[in-house]
Amino acid sequence: MIKRVFGQAIIAYDNDAAGQNATLRGLDILAGLGCVVKVLMLPAKDKFGNTIKDPDDFIRLMGKEEFKESLKNALMLVEYKAHLLKQTCDLKTSGGKIAFLKGVAAAIGQVQSPVERDVYIKNISARYNTSYDALLKEVQNRTGDTGRSDTSQTEIPRTKKIASALTDRFTESKLDKLFYTILVLLCNNPTFKGEIEKQLLADNMIHNDFSRDLLQEIINRYDSKESPDEARIAAMLDDEQRAAFIKEAAEYHTISDPCKALNDYISKYRHDMIVNNNMVLSRALASDGLSESEKENIKEELRKNTALLAKYKINT
After folding, report:
1. What strands lie across the sheet with 36-39, from one edge to the other?
2. Where does the chain show beta strands of DSSP type E?
3. pTM (predicted TM-score)
4. Tens digit of pLDDT for each residue in 3-54?
5. 176 burial via Cβ count (<10 Å: 0-12, 13-18, 19+)
6. What is the spatial distance between Cα 48 and Cα 285, in angstroms, rounded to a whole number?
7. What is the number of other CB atoms lying within 10 angstroms of the CB of residue 205?
């Protein structure tokens, strides 16, 4: 019922070893049923030094609103297991590092989605200052996955090269925001799948490889009759991306006409990608060392992009 109604569960157990063991058993059961599962780490004491042993203590001492706010910091299953492993493994020693990496790799290896696995490997290796390559290799040894490619994902023909390089992080953040809104619309309106596939995947109009893989993952879930709910998508993102996605998801209730919103956001997204690509091309055209034929090719692509922009009536 939890999976069908909510799609995710956040579990907060007692702040002791028995509670942690119960947490792991509960999380593994829920994960096996296909839920997005998280665990809330309770503080040991409140600001006055009172001991917090369980969720009841937390709410009694710190209040309902503080408890609701703390739910935002709940850890994903793999992150929680990494946290527990860190407590028992001394990462200053070779043996401790090996035990930690093997334990984390075992947890990540249970995740079905290659996109989710990649995010966990990046986040955990950065957070605990361990080798990304070593953790990746250990996970690959357990899953049999030897590279980025995955047979369950469709290879997209790279016939166009829109937004071949983003001009800066600000530009990428703007495109992320538009892209996440499109994903939120897709999660709430399964019938939008065909149009989004046509406008973004088929036309290769996606601003980076991660976003392409993420959208393909969601499409694959729909095709296999799974529900790509917002909680599951958020679980695939790093902290910064997750915050941006959740913000867009929270605004969905303000959209009165989802069909019009989809058309508007796709148009804006495609428009901004072309504008960005023109900036990149113009900068390349001004650089030294280009042959005349290379310059003509760039000018031709600029002309084509300018013609494409005329299709969009965008308020910038």
Report:
1. 8-11, 36-39, 75-76
2. 8-11, 36-39, 75-76
3. 0.52
4. 454 567 788 866 665 556 556 666 777 776 667 788 888 888 888 889 888 8
5. buried
6. 64
7. 17
